[in-house]
Amino acid sequence: MCGIAGFMLREGSRPNPEELGRMAAALAHRGPDDHGIHCNGPVGLAQTRLSIIGLATGHQPMVSADGQLALAANGEVYNYIELNAALRTQGREPRTDSDSETILHAYAVHGLDFPVELRGMFGFALHDAQAERLILGRDRLGIKPLFYVRLPDRIAFASEIKALLPILPGQPRVNPVALRQFLQNQFASGEETILEGIRRVPPGEILIIDRDLRIEQRRYWSALDIAPRAIGLEEAQAELNALMHASMREHMRSDVPFGLFLSGGVDSAVLAALLHTHGAGRIKSFSVGYRGTAMAHELDEAARVAAHFGLDHRPLALELDQVFARIPHTVWAADELMRDYANLPTSILAETAAADLKVVFSGEGGDEVFAGYGRYRPPPAERWIKGLLSPGSGGFRTRGQWSGHWSRRLLGSALGSIKEPDRAPFLQAWRSTPKRWSDLQRRQYTDLVTALPDNLLVKTDRMLMGFGLEGRVPFLDHRLVEFGLSLPDALKVKGHQGKWLLKRWAEPMLPPGHLARPKRGFHVPVGDWLTGEVAARVGERLARSRGIREWFRVESIPDLVAARQAAKGGSRELFGLMQFAIWHRLFIEQPGLAPSPDEDPLDWIASRT
C-alpha cells in the first residue's frame, strides 16, 4: 500500500526531481516506510511506500531488468503467487518478493490486456520507454484512488488530489457542478472532481498516454457485462462458499499482522468468522460507540462477536467533542468533498489500529454486492410515487440531501443557475444498464459505480491511509461482485430482509441470534453536537469564510442557525457549509496546510487574515 505520483512531459522536456519530491511529500502519510523517484526520458515517477508484502525487496519505483519498464504502484495484487507461477512459464522470473512486480511482468507478457490478469485493489503508473507511453490503471471497483490533470506541458497523476496541487500553474478552481452534487448527493461522482481540470481515472480502466500526450481510455472490466443467472439455492450457496473462502485466502496474504474493524453487523461478523476459519488466530479487532448520547451504538454486539471468535478486542467509547475534533483532519484526508459522518469515527479507529498494525479488514461492499440496503427494497407505492416525481431512475436516488427551502435561500447565483441535474450520475448509471436486468440489479449497479467508489471507498482508503493503514475489503473481490449482481432477486431479498443468501450461508458460522439483531454501522450523533452554542459559533465563522462568501448567500446563515437551534432541520445544510468552508481553506486558499488529527473545527472554518 502506497502513494504514487508523477507526470509525462512533452517531448524534449525532462522531469525536475524537486517537483516529484514535492508531490511525494504530500503523500508521505500513505507511505511512511520508504520512498523513491525514477526519471527516464520525459517521464518521472515517485512513490511513498507502506511495506506489507516483500518487506525487504519491494522498493519502488520498480524497473525491469532491461530498464525499459518502470512501475509505481499502490495497493495489492492478491493473486500474485498464482500469476508469478504462470509468468515463469513465459520466462518472466520475479527478482523481488513484491506483489507489485507482477504488474510489470503481466504487462510484458500480455501487453495492454494485462489488467484482466490482476485480482486486487490497485492504482498504478507504468512507463514503457520503448513504446514511449505511460499507462495509468485502476482496479475494477475503484478501491484504490488515482487522479490526473492535463497541464500545458504535461499530464500529471497522483493517488490523492493534494499531491497535484504543488505543480498546478495557478490557484485551484472549484468545479460548481461537483460542488452542487456534493451538497445534494453527499458526494460528487464521475470522472470530474471538485477541482476544475483534475479528473479521476475511472474504475476498471487504463489510460494510455502517448508521446504527444494524447490519452486513450480503455475499459478492461465493467459490471454491465454481468448477465442475470437462473440459479437455485443449493448451487448458489456452494458457489458463494467457494468464492468467499477463495477471496479470504488471497486477502490474508501479508508479511505483517492484520486486524479487523467490527461494526456489530453482518458483514464484519462474516469476516471475523472467515478469518477464524482460516487460522488468523487472536487478531486485534476494534469497534466504536459514543458516551453521552441517546443514539444506539454497536459496542455490545461487536464485543459478543469478538468473544465468540477469540479476538483481541478493543472497544472505543468516544466523547462527542473527541469525535467532532476530527472534522478538519478528515476533510484534509478525504481530498474530495463527501459528507459521510462515518469518516469521523473511522478516522479515530484508523489512528488507534495504526499504532499496532499496518492492515485491517473491513466489510465495505457487502450491502452493494448482496443487496442489503433498505433502499433496494422500497414498497411499490413509494417506488411509483418517487419515479413519478423524479423520473429516470425507477424511483431510486431521487431525493436531494438539502431541502428545497434552504437550497433556494443559501445557494449563490453560480450554484443556483446550474442546469445539469444533481442526479446526473445516478441517471446515467441507471440508463446504461441492460434491459434484461431487474430494478434491484439496477439499484445495485447504480451504487456500485457512484456511491461505492466516490463515497464509501473514499472513506475506507483516505481515512485509513491518513495514518498509514491499509484497508482490505474481501467482499469487493470482483468475482464476488459478479456473482452477487448476477443472482436472481429472490436469492437476495425475501420479504423485508435483504442479503438473504449471504445470511443463510453465514448463519451456521455466526454467534447464535446475531442475524436477528438490527443493522447498525458506524453512525454518528451529529444532531447531539451541532446545536445550541456550537451552531451559533459555526454560523459566525461561516460568515467570515472566503469560500462561503463566494459561493453562498451569507445573509441567510443566521436563519439557518436559528432553525437548527430550534430543532427545525438544517443539520445537513449547516454541516455541509462547515465542511466546504474548511475544505476551501485547505485546498483553495492555503494548499499545503494540514490539520493535526485533533483540532477545534471552528478554528479551521476561516483563516484569521
TrEMBL record:
Sorted alphabetically, the Gene Ontology BP terms of this entry are: asparagine biosynthetic process
**Record-annotated residues binding L-glutamine?**
99
One Gene Ontology CC term in the entry = cytosol
Residues covered by the Glutamine amidotransferase type-2 domain:
2-212
Per UniProt, the keywords (alphabetical) are: Amino-acid biosynthesis, Asparagine biosynthesis, ATP-binding, Glutamine amidotransferase, Nucleotide-binding
Q: Which GO terms describe its molecular function?
A: asparagine synthase (glutamine-hydrolyzing) activity; ATP binding
- In this protein, the active site sits at 2
| SUPFAM superfamilies in the record | Adenine nucleotide alpha hydrolases-like (SSF52402), N-terminal nucleophile aminohydrolases (Ntn hydrolases) (SSF56235)
Q: Does the keyword Ubl conjugation apply?
A: no
Superkingdom of the source species: Bacteria
Q: Which residues bind ATP?
A: 288, 362-363
Q: What does the record give as its pathway?
A: Amino-acid biosynthesis; L-asparagine biosynthesis; L-asparagine from L-aspartate (L-Gln route): step 1/1
Amino-acid biosynthesis is among the record's keywords: yes
Which parts of the sequence are marked as the site Important for beta-aspartyl-AMP intermediate formation?
Answer: 364
| Reaction(s) this enzyme catalyzes, per UniProt | L-aspartate + L-glutamine + ATP + H2O = L-asparagine + L-glutamate + AMP + diphosphate + H(+)
Instruction: Give the EC number.
Output: 6.3.5.4
Pfam entry (one): GATase_7
Family note? Belongs to the asparagine synthetase family.
Q: What is this protein called?
A: asparagine synthase (glutamine-hydrolyzing)
Organism of origin: Thiocapsa rosea
Q: What is the lineage of its organism?
A: Bacteria, Pseudomonadati, Pseudomonadota, Gammaproteobacteria, Chromatiales
